[in-house]
Amino acid sequence: MISLLKTRLHSHKTFLNNLGLNNLGLNNANTIVKVGWWRRSFAIFIDLFILDICTKISVYPLHKGLNELYDLDIFSFLIEVDSDILRVLILYFISYIIIGVILSCFYFIYFHGYLGQTIGKRLLKIKVIQIDGGGLTWKRAFMRWMGYFVSWFPFFLGFIWVVFDKDKQAWHDKIASTYVVRV
What we know:
Radius of gyration: 22 Å
Distance between the termini: 31 Å
Number of helices: 8
Number of domains: 1
Mean pLDDT: 84
Strand order of the largest sheet: 1-2
Shape: elongated
Number of strands: 2
Strand content: 5-15%
Largest sheet: 2 strands, antiparallel
């Protein structure tokens, strides 16, 4: 009976591995392989590139509307700076920041909470897990996203911290009690 269970368990693990669904970050020795700074940096670069495109698409109607309203072309602000052009640029910049933060909130919380990995992490075959090895909850994904601001504020020191930390955790990982591991 026990050998039958072991055989079935092994076949299920093999099946999940073949599908790429064994996302617990375990290597062949069943130990967690934590990911360092370079791989994480490339993943966040991919994610920020995706978010930048989505934000620009979202802000484009405002940009087009403001250009038509004030009859501006792309190089107007280089020729002369008056109060109308300055107000338009400030409004566009503030709108871009607000929409970007809202999109990043939904992007990171959804992908981390639902899949444990964003598109960038998926492409680089890494995943975020809780310290106990389980998947992220929505609450923990939100805490991790809020921790990005803590990691970002003092000159990105919280992100760079991965290089010096024995557990390869950034500050936002420590806040949310998470690891980034290989899939």
